[in-house]
Amino acid sequence: MPQLLLSRGDSMAELYLPGGELSDRIALTGLKVRGFHGVFEHERENGQDFIIDVVLHTSMHRTPYGDDLAQTINYAEVADKVVEIVSGEPLNLIETLAERIADAALQFGALAADVTVHKPQAPIEHSFADVDVTVRRLSKLLQPPKPAAEVVVGIGSNMDDPVTQVEIGAGKLAKVLEYERMSRRRVTAAEVMPGQPSQPNYINAVMVGYTTLSPLALLRELQRIEDEQGRVREERWGPRTLDLDLVSYKVAGKEITSDDPNLTLPHPRAHERSFVLEPWAEVDPWGMLSGKPVRR
Ligand SMILES: Nc1ncnc2c1ncn2[C@@H]1O[C@H](COP(=O)(O)OP(=O)(O)OP(=O)(O)O)[C@@H](O)[C@H]1O
Ligand SMILES: Nc1nc2c(c(=O)[nH]1)N=C(CO)CN2
């Protein structure tokens, strides 16, 4: 994680790049632009001067420099962009203004941008030298990865050519998950509710993989895939074209639990379903569900 070493008012703060190299910097300071930002009506009507400092962090010594403007960030273009933003759409907060400038500055190819917005004529009823806000924004290239959750999804179908349903469903699911592994498909006898008429056999399988989606966002994706396969939500435990159950969701090895009926975690019936546990154990022999090994 790049270190943040900003002190207030210090727009020349250092940034260490991965590997410990200190960033190279292009700094544009003291750019004075009239703008109409502020929460008060008189600020919106009369406007005032905003002074902007922008520090673009780059890494120059790996760049094939050749004394060529095309190989670097042209500070004149950055200045034009800053003037366009500051003199443009009025905003309430200088925080928002600083953020917009930083986002725009990153578009020029910087690895990070520190932006300070000074508002020396701010409506403060005391004698003061300056008021300013500094933000640092990092390019995507420097952002640390989010920790991915390890998830287990149960797949089942017993309608409309179940083998094809499972194959298509698994293909779509593989696009949602990372580093996914799919068990073999199994033919299983339908487990029905007491009193429910018998149903055709199921094809069942399990996919394990990783995601940065939240549990609810992943459930929505599963439901989208079910719906795309013509799933009609009628009878509980009724025959279905495709059923995708979120069986387990773990972050850093710890199972996320939920009692919410819209998303219960782990899946409340998975522990008693051999059509879930067996394929899960096949792709993840050390898998655990609620503290118990899935390999029985
Ligand atoms: N872990 C979960 N995975 C998928 N759906 C869940 C989960 N927990 C709760 N649900 C909710 O269950 C509702 C009904 O799901 P569904 O119709 O697939 O149940 P079912 O397949 O008939 O039964 P089962 O859940 O026993 O497989 C869904 O609308 C969903 O919001
Ligand atoms: N064999 C089998 N039986 C079931 C299955 C399933 O996927 N496989 N799913 C059910 C409700 O989701 C109910 N019964």
UniProtKB/TrEMBL annotation:
Matches recorded under Gene3D superfamilies: 3.30.1130.10, 7,8-Dihydro-6-hydroxymethylpterin-pyrophosphokinase HPPK
Sequence similarity: In the N-terminal section; belongs to the DHNA family. Belongs to the DHNA family.
Region forming the signal peptide: none
Domain 7,8-dihydro-6-hydroxymethylpterin-pyrophosphokinase, first and last residues per copy: 236-247
Record's keyword annotation contains Transmembrane helix: no
Highest taxon in the source lineage: Bacteria
Reaction equations catalysed: 6-hydroxymethyl-7,8-dihydropterin + ATP = (7,8-dihydropterin-6-yl)methyl diphosphate + AMP + H(+); 7,8-dihydroneopterin = 6-hydroxymethyl-7,8-dihydropterin + glycolaldehyde
E.C. code: 4.1.2.25, 2.7.6.3
BP GO terms, sorted: folic acid biosynthetic process; tetrahydrofolate biosynthetic process
Functional pathway: Cofactor biosynthesis; tetrahydrofolate biosynthesis; 2-amino-4-hydroxy-6-hydroxymethyl-7,8-dihydropteridine diphosphate from 7,8-dihydroneopterin triphosphate: step 4/4; Cofactor biosynthesis; tetrahydrofolate biosynthesis; 2-amino-4-hydroxy-6-hydroxymethyl-7,8-dihydropteridine diphosphate from 7,8-dihydroneopterin triphosphate: step 3/4
Function: Catalyzes the conversion of 7,8-dihydroneopterin to 6-hydroxymethyl-7,8-dihydropterin.
InterPro entries assigned: Dihydroneopterin_aldolase, FolB_dom, GTP-CH-I_C/QueF, Hppk, Hppk_sf
Keywords: ATP-binding, Folate biosynthesis, Kinase, Lyase, Nucleotide-binding, Transferase
Descriptive protein name: Bifunctional folate synthesis protein
Gene giving rise to this polypeptide: folK
Organism of provenance: Flaviflexus ciconiae
MF GO annotations: 2-amino-4-hydroxy-6-hydroxymethyldihydropteridine diphosphokinase activity; ATP binding; dihydroneopterin aldolase activity; kinase activity
